[in-house]
Amino acid sequence: MGELAAEKHAKYILTVEKKKDSIESVLMEHLRINGAYWGLTTLDILDKLAAAVDQETIVSWVMSCQHESGGFGGNEGHDPHLLYTLSAIQILALFNKINTLDIEKVTNYITALQNEDGSFSGDEWGEIDTRFSYVAICSLALLKQLDKINVEKAVSYIISCKNLDGGFGCTPGAESHAGQIFCCVGALAITGSLHYVDKDLLGWWLCERQVKSGGLNGRPEKLPDVCYSWWVLSSLIMIDRVHWIDKEKLVKFILDCQDKENGGISDRPDDAVDVFHTYFGVAGLSLLEYPGLKAIDPAYALPVDVISRILLH
């Protein structure tokens, strides 16, 4: 088994950020704030954040993405959405700068997106998805404003998306998917509602996602993908069933997806690397207690020391 090329991954992330004219940068312009969260959190897990970036410049840019509504867009001049709002809060949390926010304004933006049935719309245009339930609950928990929504209804809606296989979908009756399962289990964990999960049934579905290569897929009959090292693994940890998979084989799969020359991690071995898979690969290794990495919280997707600083003060 190889080793984690930590220095090269850190260099790769910093290089990507500087290539503003590259095709990757242009294609990701609308979700740059998500990319910043993935890259910055990776640097923090690698314990290289403080020395690598200009905190004031990043915080200033994040705040420039905020709208009058209180929500954040994926970049300057882009429309606000819950997904980008959570990334903005998470970035500020990394730098201990949540107090830069007008917390009441951001809270009002999020709470206004809760629907009568407890679900959340992602933005003013009304798309509903359990991803948005997680994002709203996680955001408000980080802002210590969870009591501003109807938590009971929010939990009830998530439970209505539970399937016979123990998994969860994006809406009631939708197919179980590992990404949605993370969102639903994460939201239930944050709200202290994990007793609604059939842990053995869901644990079985999740551990069945491991394929012969050691990697994890998101649904039956799909190829493995490094990003599920996060979605599946964090869910298994939250329901205390992570011992049901072969951790060593998963570590090997993630390490095999590294570009050891130029840095970065890809979805599968020998594919092109990107910031998204680099983050989820490193975060997965953190969950697997790989040596030299900071611990990450499986529900909040931020380093444990960051979450402790916010929630314990």
Can you walk through the features of this model?
Helix content is 50%, strand content 1%. With 313 residues, the chain is an all-alpha fold. The chain has a two-stranded antiparallel sheet. A hairpin with a 6-residue loop joins strand 1 and strand 2. Helix 1 runs antiparallel to helix 3 (32-45), helix 3 (32-45) packs parallel to helix 6 (82-94) and helix 6 runs parallel beside helix 8.
Set down the secondary structure blueprint.
Elements: H1 6-18, H2 23-27, H3 32-45, H4 49-52, H5 55-64, H6 82-94, H7 103-111, H8 130-142, H9 151-160, H10 178-190, H11 199-207, H12 228-238, H13 247-256, E1 265-266, E2 273-274, H14 275-287, H15 304-311
Antiparallel strand pairs: 1-2
Approximate shape? globular
Could you tell me the radius of gyration in angstroms?
A: 18 Å
Report mean pLDDT, rounded to a whole number: 95
Separation, N- and C-terminal Cα atoms: 41 Å
Strand content: under 5%
- Count of DSSP helices? 15
H/E topology pattern: HHHHHHHHHHHHHEEHH
Largest sheet, described in full? 2 strands, antiparallel
Strand numbers in spatial order across the main sheet? 1-2
Number of strands: 2
| Low-pLDDT segments | none
Helix content: 40-55%
Which structural class is indicated by helix and strand composition?
Answer: mainly alpha
